[in-house]
Amino acid sequence: MDLLELILFILPAYIANAAPVIFGGRGPVIDFGKNFLDGKRILGDGKTFSGFFSGLACGAAAGYAIAFSLNQFYLPQYGVCEKTVIGIALAFGALAGDLGGSFIKRRLGFERGAQSIFLDQWVFLAVALALAVYAYPALAQEVGLSGLGFLLVATFVLHKATNAAAFWLKLKKVPW
Ligand code: CTP
Ligand code: MG
């Protein structure tokens, strides 16, 4: 995939990761306030059902919208329906990966909202990609090592930039 294709491909994961900042943060938390065996929170107060499901809805909707409207610009060997499935896999993977990242952060002793370089940027991306490749194994070759390298760097930079912007817009309490 070239750069434009890669960006269109990964957008559902980014949107699923970003939407909870706007639509989440309210209602019950996913770990129901419970602690893990180490006495620390399982996931923490930053992971809510409202965030998870709003992220899934926005990511899946974006996956369909991109596949429907920009079909000719990426992954020509897949139809709109398959690309929508890829988008949903990316969105679900991004949200599940984000929960996994928080689980690891709590085990490492980071408080909710604390910055954790690489965990914050790459765990959601890794699980999103893994789930998409699980659904369509040929995607591994489509993305390729150079594509993976690009996504790692681009996601890192974009995550930093969008979180700083969200802080500036008063959507987040911290600039990371
Ligand atoms: N959010 C949510 N539900 C989710 C994911 C995120 O409600 N499943 C919202 C929360 O308001 C959260 C914000 O989006 O504070 C930013 O997400 P993130 O940076 O992933 O959470 P943190 O608060 O930093 O918590 P953690 O340290 O666990 O990453
Ligand atoms: Mg955070």
Offer a concise description of the structure:
Helix content is 66%, strand content 0%. The chain is mostly helical. Helix 1 packs across helix 5.
* Count of helix runs: 5
Radius of gyration: 16 Å
How much of the residues is beta strand, in percent?
A: under 5%
- Determine the mean pLDDT: 97
Query: How does the overall form come out from the CA principal axes?
Result: globular
Overview of this structure, please?
By secondary structure, the chain is mainly alpha-helical. The protein contains five helices and no strands. Helix 1 (3-23) packs across helix 5, helix 2 runs antiparallel to helix 3 (80-107) and helix 3 (80-107) runs antiparallel to helix 4. The model has no long low-confidence stretch (mean pLDDT 97). Magnesium ion binds at residues 113, 120. Cytidine-5'-triphosphate binds next to helix 1, helix 2 and helix 3.
Topology of this structure?
Elements: H1 3-23, H2 49-69, H3 80-107, H4 119-135, H5 139-168
The protein binds cytidine-5'-triphosphate (CTP) and magnesium ion.
Magnesium ion (MG) is lined by residues 113, 120.
